[in-house]
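Quick start: what a row looks like.
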Amino acid sequence: MSRQEARLRAGSGRRPSERVVEHVAAAEGVSPAALEDRLYDAIDSEALDSIVGSGSPDVEVTFRFGEYLVTVSEGRTLEVSVRSID
């Protein structure tokens, strides 16, 4: 799935930063612990959690994480979109 877009709705009670790592790991076909890239090298995970968890329905954050472009948005539910950068 590393060459395709993976779009999954995150479960409630999970921090956005955790969901990002899980989705990128799924796109790579590895466990989150096996990822070579670290989220903290791409973005401040506490800031991401705070901004996306603010409750505003119009929040969307996009950033590069390793070889992926990640978009995290908050609406009724948290949505994480991961797509490979070619």
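That is the whole record. The CA atoms of residues 11 and 78 lie 8 Å apart. Residues 16-28 form the longest helix (13 residues).
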